[in-house]
Write a structure and sequence with these properties.
The protein is α+β, with helices and mostly antiparallel strands and 132 residues long. Helices cover 36% and strands 29% of the residues. Helix 1 packs across helix 2.
């Protein structure tokens, strides 16, 4: 499992995090600690999603993508479908405006807000896991 996780982290880091205050080694250590601590992951061939409860009824998630837009869209839809009945809503925060396209292909009602709340929080995307 760690080999595929590290491959995803490597590719995502090169695409989106190269100019950050941390390096790839730190990114690997962080994800390794996250997994070792028993935290929740949703893993596909090319996408790693970590998720955790944010507050009552809401789950927050973050994606690392080593594949295509279709890969991340399918992974997000898979994760969210698996969380139906456990949470009412889901949220993710990101900077890349291309991610906004996921809304068009979401299996569940979704909305995007531009929030400009700092690094990794230019946008927030909410999903209604109740399907309404």
């Amino acid at each position: 499992m760690y080999d595929n996780v590290h491959r995803i982290v490597d590719i995502d880091f090169q695409r989106h995090h190269r100019n950050r205050e941390y390096d790839l080694k730190f990114a690997h250590e962080l994800v390794d600690r996250y997994i070792a601590s028993g935290n929740k992951l949703y893993l596909t061939e090319n996408v790693l999603i970590r998720y955790e409860p944010l507050c009552e009824g809401v789950v927050k998630f973050h994606c690392m993508n080593a594949g295509s837009g279709e890969d991340i869209t399918n992974a997000v839809n898979g994760l969210l479908k698996s969380l139906i009945g456990q949470f009412d809503r889901a949220v993710t925060y990101y900077d890349n405006p291309r991610i906004n396209e996921i809304v068009k292909f979401s299996a569940l009602p979704a909305a995007v807000n531009k929030i400009d709340a700092g690094v990794d929080k230019t946008y927030e995307m909410w999903f209604d896991l109740r399907g309404k």
